[in-house]
Design a protein that fits this description.
Layout lengths: L36 H9 L4 E8 L4 E7 L5 E8 L2 E9 L3 H14 L6 H11 L6 E9 L4 H13 L2 H4 L3 E4 L5 E3 L2 E3 L8 E6 L1 E2 L2 E2 L7 E7 L5 E7 L4 E2 L2 E2 L2
Antiparallel strand pairs: 1-4, 2-3, 4-5, 5-9, 6-7, 6-12, 8-9, 10-11, 12-13, 14-15
Helix pairs in contact: 1-2, 2-3
């Protein structure tokens, strides 16, 4: 399992854009080397291989303040009630489209030609063979709540396999569950935390073209329960099932 720690890339940091996605991207109609920023965001956050689970908390956002009336005297007033939203990004890192999106994002950040050494690193990352493993990368961002994002990132840094092995799994054919084999906290590759699962069950892939959906589930903490479903029929790329 030691070799799993080399899944990331040690090159320029990846910045994951945090905008909500409702765009009609062309990422599935052109080479990834021609993807725009919108195309990249679409693949990472709203595609067959990358989805966003929004955590909302409305329990403690009722704010009270003091305002001034027309006479200049103080009035006690209550502020607006607003929810806290945390975007939890759940991505199938072992799928080539997700790695292509991260690679393309780094290229776009270069604002010009990509150095040969970096280009070679990115190509190696895209072409990496994940062998008998399925890797789910999880990260998070938030527009409003710095405390929520700090809490989630602290969890990502502190979780261990022992915390997750009984309640973190992938399910596929007939709801059969495959439980987590390894957990890697976030590294300097900016890909997020990595949840690693066996790809094979009884010598065969537990996901096939006849599988309806791939579900990722993790009771990451009592507060944060991750639950995302990916439609398998949409994961085909050039006739190959990518996950």
């Amino acid at each position: 399992m030691k070799k799993l720690r080399r899944i990331g890339i040690s090159c320029a940091p990846v910045v994951v854009f945090i905008c909500a996605l409702s765009i009609s991207a062309q990422w599935n109609k052109k080479p990834y080397s021609e993807w725009s920023e919108k195309d990249v965001k679409k693949v990472l956050n709203d595609s067959p291989w990358g989805q966003t689970q929004v955590y909302s908390d409305t329990s403690n956002e009722f704010k009270r303040g003091v305002s001034r009336n027309a006479l200049g005297t103080a009035d006690n007033s209550t502020g607006d009630y607003s929810a806290v939203h945390l975007n939890i990004r759940i991505r199938l890192l072992s799928s080539k489209p997700v790695r292509q999106a991260f690679s393309r994002l780094i290229e776009l950040m270069q604002k010009g030609s990509v150095p040969d050494q970096l280009s070679a690193q990115l190509k190696g990352f895209v072409d990496k063979d994940f062998g008998p493993y399925v890797v789910v990368a999880v990260d998070a961002d938030a527009n409003e709540s710095k405390s929520e994002i700090r809490e989630f990132r602290t969890l990502m840094d502190s979780r261990a396999l022992a915390d997750l092995k009984l309640n973190t799994y992938l399910s596929g054919k007939g709801g059969e569950r495959v439980y987590i084999a390894q957990y890697l906290p976030p590294q300097k590759d900016n890909l997020g935390a990595k949840f690693i699962f066996p790809r094979m069950v009884n010598g065969e892939p537990f996901i096939g073209p006849d599988t309806n959906e791939l579900r990722f589930y993790s009771e990451f903490s009592e507060k944060f329960k991750l639950d995302m479903r990916f439609k398998v029929k949409d994961m085909l790329v050039d006739g190959k099932l990518e996950y």
